[in-house]
Design the sequence.
């Protein structure tokens, strides 16, 4: 199997991709959204002409807004992020945003108190850790009967490594998206990341399951085969279905991105990147790593 | 064989029936889909209850009375299908707080919604601390001077406007409050045990009157006199009659989505859903041919069943719709795994009958394990989520469960019911590419 034989190349490629993602994260950073930081998010649309940002900035400053960010969105919409609103600001919101011929309609207003933001931030981190831990435990459990020549914990740990890769890539992508398009990390982003975890493990399970089956068959038939050979053969037998299961999901995600609701566009994009990363890692990373680890352990024993 | 065909027929009839129900109950409005605030338009308000003047044993009680009072209030204003619930939160932010969540569909003016809730009076009763006269300074806070009495706004049953005055003049408007049976008993005990002590009645956190208890009051009425104008007293009595909050609440979070934005999200979601379903079906048909057709049929059944479940269990949000569309792509995954395995068995020279059986049984372990990992994620997401994300997690989890049923049981029944036993060229045509006869 070519992928297993030339695994060095793919380790290098994976390393480059991961480094790029981490670089983007380090360079651009993640912009936490209102959900996590607390504060207000206002979306207004206009019937007539959308006023210029300068005019609105002036209006907003007059109404006592400080340290806000105002961003155009679509053709007739503004999005404002600011501190929590006062009663007076909330009451006059449409008037503050209206300017000359442009009459504003408040389409969306979200205000999040600081404790709620902090709580959600901690909850998100715990959820992420919990998903990783549970999947590790589950895989170690599901593969408990195949401990030769590689212990079932190794399967779990390698699945974990591929999952971490699958998270780093969309997070890095999102950091760049945030820098260039002002996308912010909100609860939907966290949801997307957790969903990537739950889904991209599927393909890894499929190939590991095949390795498990082939090992058993070899054992039953008393056939001696190099582990690299067995693992490579398993990968060869399963990579088409790994790609196809991801393809059906990618199709729906592309459609969701292009014609779905505006509020889930960033979400669909994050999932797209995450699932592509997941499919890549389950084919080009999981099995090669498994073979590599087995080699190391074999050398130690000698 | 005939048994399989009978089962297949039953499944088809059942599916059609459920599909008809889903369609017609939507058309005649007898059971439409429940839409979350981000789709229907409306306002969500989250309040923190200020419980510092409440004994910890009374917290649960106060919260439920808080919920009931606000619910009554909201219903009074004709908001359709409001949701009022309490939540314990803040633990993960290093504090602990009790929250009240109010969802008002159709109310898209945030300030109006806040005003609607804000008119509810907060009625508290407190006793002056025994050592208050020694410690009191000009800057003493209410909590330093008073201790909470066992009585709260939840013990109120009604209030009325009366006039009283010295020498029968009846010029001063007062509000007479009547306690319910439980409240009357507490009040009787309280007045009996604390004769001579000052007793404060607080409205919205401000002391309205602080009379000294002269004698036990067994009949469960108290008088609030606080230099009211007749109008103010009348309004207070009316508001108290709708219920008084036992503790003050503070607004910590709001979310409002306009109706137009929600409508557009529904339409876009519907369109994306239809296109997504069509594209996935086409893919399955082109790649897997006959089994692909049956997978498309199984997918249709999946959609019908999941929509049926939505009507009863799920409040749809934009994230929920996204989860549904995603689940369409995932629902056929089990079919992909099974069909690829079938092809493999065919390639090894088995007849289609045997290949179908083996394809299903050998693909099962990987389907089981991968779906369990998805369920783990769905459960953790449900725990993590705010109400919008909970919708996603619920749909995602339901999708995994239902699609396992349809993708495995239904498509297997159909495949076996067709009873094809083809080999070679015919099998290659029916079961798709990559089979060398």
Sequence:
């Amino acid at each position: 199997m070519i992928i297993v034989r030339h695994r060095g190349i793919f380790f290098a490629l994976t390393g480059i991709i991961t480094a790029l993602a981490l670089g983007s994260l380090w360079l651009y950073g993640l912009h936490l959204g209102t959900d996590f930081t607390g504060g207000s998010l206002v979306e207004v649309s206009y019937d007539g002409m959308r006023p210029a940002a300068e005019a609105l900035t002036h209006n907003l400053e007059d109404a006592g807004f400080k340290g806000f960010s105002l961003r155009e969105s679509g053709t007739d919409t503004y999005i404002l992020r600011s501190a929590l609103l006062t009663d007076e600001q909330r009451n006059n919101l449409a008037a503050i945003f209206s300017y000359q011929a442009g009459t504003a309609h408040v389409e969306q207003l979200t205000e999040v108190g600081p404790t709620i933001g902090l709580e959600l931030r901690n909850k998100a981190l715990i959820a992420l850790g919990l998903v990783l831990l549970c999947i590790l435990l589950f895989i170690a459990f599901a593969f408990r009967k195949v401990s030769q020549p590689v212990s079932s914990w190794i399967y779990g740990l390698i699945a974990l490594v591929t999952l971490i890769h699958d998270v780093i890539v969309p997070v890095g992508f999102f950091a760049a998206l945030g820098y260039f398009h002002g996308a912010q990390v909100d609860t939907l982003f966290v949801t997307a990341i957790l969903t990537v975890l739950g889904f991209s493990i599927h393909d890894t399970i499929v190939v590991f399951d095949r390795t498990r089956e082939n090992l058993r068959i070899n054992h039953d038939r008393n056939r001696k085969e190099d582990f690299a050979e067995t693992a490579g053969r398993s990968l060869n037998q399963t990579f088409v279905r790994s790609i196809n299961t991801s393809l059906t999901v990618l199709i729906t995600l592309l459609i969701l991105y292009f014609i779905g609701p505006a509020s889930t566009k960033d979400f669909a994009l994050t999932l797209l990147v995450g699932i592509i990363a997941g499919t890549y890692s389950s084919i080009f990373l999981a099995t090669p790593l498994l073979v590599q680890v087995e080699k190391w352990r074999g050398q130690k024993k000698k | 064989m005939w048994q399989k065909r009978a089962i297949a027929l039953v499944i088809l009839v059942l599916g059609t029936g459920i599909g008809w129900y889903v369609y017609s109950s939507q058309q005649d409005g007898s059971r439409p889909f429940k839409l979350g605030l981000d789709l229907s338009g409306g306002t969500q308000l989250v309040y923190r209850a200020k419980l510092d003047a409440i004994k910890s044993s009374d917290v649960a009680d106060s919260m439920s009375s808080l919920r009931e009072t606000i619910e009554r209030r909201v219903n009074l204003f004709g908001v359709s299908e409001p949701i009022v619930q309490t939540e314990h939160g803040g633990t993960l932010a290093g504090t602990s707080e009790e929250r009240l969540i109010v969802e008002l569909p159709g109310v898209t003016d945030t300030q109006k919604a806040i005003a609607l809730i804000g008119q509810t009076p907060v009625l508290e009763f407190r006793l002056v601390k025994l050592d208050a006269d020694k410690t009191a300074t000009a800057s003493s806070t209410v909590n330093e001077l008073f201790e909470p009495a066992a009585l709260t706004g939840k013990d109120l049953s009604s209030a009325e406007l009366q006039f009283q005055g010295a020498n029968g003049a009846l010029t001063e408007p007062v509000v007479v409050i009547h306690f319910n049976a439980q409240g009357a008993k507490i009040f009787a005990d309280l007045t009996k045990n604390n004769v001579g002590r000052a007793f404060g009645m607080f409205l919205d956190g401000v002391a309205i009157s602080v009379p000294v208890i002269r004698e036990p009051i067994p009949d469960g009425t108290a008088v609030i006199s606080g230099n009211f104008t007749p109008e103010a007293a009348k309004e207070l009595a009316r508001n108290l009659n709708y219920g008084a909050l036992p503790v003050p609440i503070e607004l910590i979070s709001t979310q409002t989505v306009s109706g137009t934005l929600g409508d557009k999200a529904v339409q876009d979601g519907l369109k994306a859903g239809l296109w997504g379903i069509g594209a996935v079906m086409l893919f399955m048909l082109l790649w897997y041919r006959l089994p692909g057709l049956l997978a498309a049929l199984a997918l249709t059944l999946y959609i019908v069943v999941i929509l049926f479940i939505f009507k009863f269990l799920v409040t749809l949000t934009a994230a929920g719709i996204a989860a549904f569309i995603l689940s369409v792509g995932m629902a056929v995954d089990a079919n992909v795994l099974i069909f690829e395995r079938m092809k493999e068995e065919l390639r090894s020279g088995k007849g289609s009958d045997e290949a179908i059986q083996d394809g299903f049984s050998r693909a099962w372990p990987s389907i089981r394990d991968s779906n369990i990992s998805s369920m783990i994620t769905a459960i953790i997401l449900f725990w993590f989520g705010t109400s919008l994300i909970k919708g996603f997690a619920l749909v995602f989890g339901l999708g995994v469960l239902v699609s396992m049923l349809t993708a495995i049981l239904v498509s297997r029944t159909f495949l076996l019911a067709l009873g094809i036993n083809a080999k070679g060229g015919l099998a290659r045509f029916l079961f798709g590419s990559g089979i060398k006869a």
Observations:
- The domain at 2-34+115-301 of chain A is CATH 1.20.1640.10 (Multidrug efflux transporter AcrB transmembrane fold).
